[in-house]
TrEMBL record:
Presence of the UniProt keyword Methyltransferase in the record: yes
InterPro entries: DNA_methylase_N6_adenine_CS, RLMG, RlmG_N, RsmC/RlmG, SAM-dependent_MTases_sf, Small_mtfrase_dom
Residue ranges of domain RlmG N-terminal in the record: 2-182
Keywords: Cytoplasm, Methyltransferase, rRNA processing, S-adenosyl-L-methionine, Transferase
Gene3D superfamilies assigned: Vaccinia Virus protein VP39
Lineage per the UniProt record: Bacteria, Pseudomonadati, Pseudomonadota, Gammaproteobacteria, Pseudomonadales
Transmembrane region(s): none
Protein name per UniProt: Methyltransferase
UniProt organism field: Thiopseudomonas acetoxidans
Amino acid sequence: MPIFSNPYASLDLVRVPQDSHVSLQAFNAADEYLLEELHARALPPHSSVLLLNDSFGALALSLAAAGYRVTSCGDSYLAAQGLGINQQRNSLQHLSIDFVSQPEQLQGPFAAVLLHIPKTLALLEQQLIRIQPHIDSNSLVVAGAMIKHLSRAAGELIEKHIGPVQASLAKKKARLLWATPSGIRTAQSPYPSRYSIPEYGLQLVNHAGIFSREGLDIGTRAFLPHLPNNLGHKQVADLGCGNGVLALVCAQQNPAAEFILLDEAYSAVRSAQENWHAAFAQRPAQFIVGDGLAAFTANSLDVVLCNPPFHQQQVVGDFLALRMFQQAARCLRPGGELWLVGNRHLGYHVKLKRWFSHVEQIAALPKFVVLRASKAEHA
C-alpha cells in the first residue's frame, strides 16, 4: 500500500474492512489538500481541531502526531475501528485522539474544523448545525472533497449554516471550500425526519445520514410482504438494520421471536432503537453498533434479515454485501436461513451458493429479487 505523506506525518494506512482484491487507498487527494492548506495557515501548536468524517484516520493521525488536540467525529463504527487499527499499525498508540460518534455531544471550542463532505447531504447539514456553538469568527473551517463528489448544494449548506464560502482551485481532482464563520445560529435542526407506512401502522424516525431517510426505499418495499412468519421463539438478526423497518414488520408477524438490530452507522441504530420502542413499548430487543456479525459466535442465530448495501461511502461494489453474507453463514445455526432483497442484476443467487447449501427465490420484481438462503442441516 502507498504511504500517505503530508506536511505533518508519513503514515502506512489501510481501509477497514480490508479487501485484498481491491486496490483502494485509505486516503485521497482531498486529505492531502486539507492538510497542506492547514499547514500553510500555520495553525498554532496544540490547537484544538475537530475532524468530521475522517474515514480511516488519515487526518486524525497526521494532526495528532504533530501535537494538535484532535477530536474525530463521524457516524461510522468502521471509521472508528479504522482509526484504531491504523493508530496501532503506525505505532502511535501513545497519541490521545477523542472519537465522538454522531449522536454524542461535542466538547468545543475548536480552533479549526476540517470536514470531509459526506455522501448524504442531510448528514452534512446536521453536522454543520452541531458545530455552530463550538466555533467563533477566528476558527478555521474548511471542507474538502473530490470534485466528482462535490455538489453545489454542499457549498450552499455550508454558507447557510456557517458563513460565506470561498472555493479553492482544483488540485489532483480535489477541491476545498473555506468558510468564514459569521455567528449563524440555526433556530432548529430539521432532523430527525419522519415518515409513515400506513399499511403496517408504523411511523418511522430517521436521523440524519441513514439510508432512504425521506421514505421507504423500493427494495425494502419489495421485501416487506415476503418476510418470514411462524418463527416461534427463534432468534432473528436484522443485519444492516437502518431505521429498523425489516425487524419491526417481521416482529409484528412473529410476536414471540427475539430480535437483534445491527448497523455500523450510529445514527441508524439510534433510529432503529427509537422506532422499536415506539412500536413495541416494553418488548425487549438488542441494538448493536458494530462490524456486522463479526463479534457474534458461530451457530448462534436462527434467521438473518438483510437489505445489503452496495457502497461504502462513495465506493460502489458488493464487497460489503458479500462480507455480510459470509458473516451470516458463520453465525447461523445448521438449518438457519438468510432472507434478503437485492438488485436482480447483482446475481446474489449465484454468489450465495459459496456459503449456503440451498438458495431459493421467494419473489421477483422487475428490479429486485427476494431470496432465502439456507444453511446445511449438518456440517
